[in-house]
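Field log, afternoon session.

UNIT: design team B
ACTIVITY: writing a sequence onto a fixed backbone
BACKBONE:
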């Protein structure tokens, strides 16, 4: 079951059809007649119930509203927007998600479809209950993977496979688990043969990391990347968690890695916060940083992944 915000009106529902429905096996978006598609990527907004709360010098809710307003000014409606985890401040409280929803209201009013993954500061049930309400008594939500929220979002140009790396709420390490790995392989086998990006909140574990860093990232990333390397359609892994805008490669497989900037705050005050425009073409994907501080030296920086 993906975490995709439902449409605001019946008219929007008719426009999106099953694409916006929670519980679909995959979210199908309409084909685009022009070669390039524009997507928007957010990560780590860390929204608290209190919109005025400041952490590490940043007002998180204000930053999210600014990012949302900037998206509305890019000159075209994006095919979709992905928020890659840690939507809530620390413990995934229901009230945090109410405020989060208020902060992105302007995007929803423009019928921009918003898909969310879960990070270590999120809470699965609280998030779903805040978005669509609790399930009926004695009923369970339909889920593709037990106790995980996953989805495949596909368009004419690209597949996005959205994963759930939340293990324990407000505990730093992430974990996919064997059932989710089985689901990922099935999705890769059955997904349309087009460039595919894997999206999860946690950064992968790398051989060069010291033991302390290895304890903070995706604990079963070796199993994940062994699986991904068997499918040439996979062109990259996109993550957040470290609050650092960066492009690198997976040390074992060579798969490109895109580390999204935080919407909220950075751990290093010299690094940029903001969001990313992803432009998908037939032969490449271009990821452009939109820093909240337009004077930052990395504002407008583009990282390119050429499809193989």
């Amino acid at each position: 079951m993906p975490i995709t915000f439902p449409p605001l009106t019946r008219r929007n529902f008719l426009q999106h059809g099953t694409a916006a429905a929670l519980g679909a096996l995959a979210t199908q978006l309409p084909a685009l007649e022009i070669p390039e598609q524009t997507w928007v990527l957010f990560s780590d907004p860390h929204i608290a119930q209190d919109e005025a709360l400041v952490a590490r010098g940043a007002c998180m809710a204000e930053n999210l509203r600014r990012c949302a307003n900037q998206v509305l000014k890019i000159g075209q409606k994006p095919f979709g927007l992905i928020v890659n985890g840690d939507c809530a401040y620390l413990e995934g409280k229901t009230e945090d998600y109410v405020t989060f929803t208020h902060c992105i209201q302007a995007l929803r009013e423009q019928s921009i479809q918003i898909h969310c993954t879960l990070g270590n500061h999120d809470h699965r049930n609280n998030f779903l209950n805040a978005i669509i309400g609790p399930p009926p008594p004695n009923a369970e939500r339909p889920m593709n993977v037990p106790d995980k929220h996953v989805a495949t979002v596909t368009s004419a140009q690209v597949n996005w496979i959205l994963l759930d790396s939340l293990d324990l709420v407000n505990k730093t390490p992430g974990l996919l688990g064997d059932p989710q790995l089985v689901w990922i392989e099935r999705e890769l086998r059955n997904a349309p043969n087009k460039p595919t990006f894997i999206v999860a909140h946690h950064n992968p574990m790398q051989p060069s990391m010291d033991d302390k860093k290895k304890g903070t990232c995706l604990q079963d990333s070796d199993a994940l990347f062994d699986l991904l390397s068997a499918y040439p359609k996979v062109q990259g892994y996109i993550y957040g968690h470290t609050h650092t805008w960066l492009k690198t490669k997976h040390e074992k497989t060579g798969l490109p890695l895109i580390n999204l900037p935080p919407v909220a705050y950075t751990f290093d005050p010299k690094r940029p916060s903001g969001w990313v425009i992803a432009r998908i073409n037939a032969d490449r994907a271009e990821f452009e940083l939109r820093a909240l501080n337009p004077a930052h030296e990395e504002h407008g920086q583009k990282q390119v992944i050429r499809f193989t």
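LOG NOTE: Confidence is low (pLDDT under 50) at residues 10-32.
NEXT ACTIVITY: expression trials, pending approval
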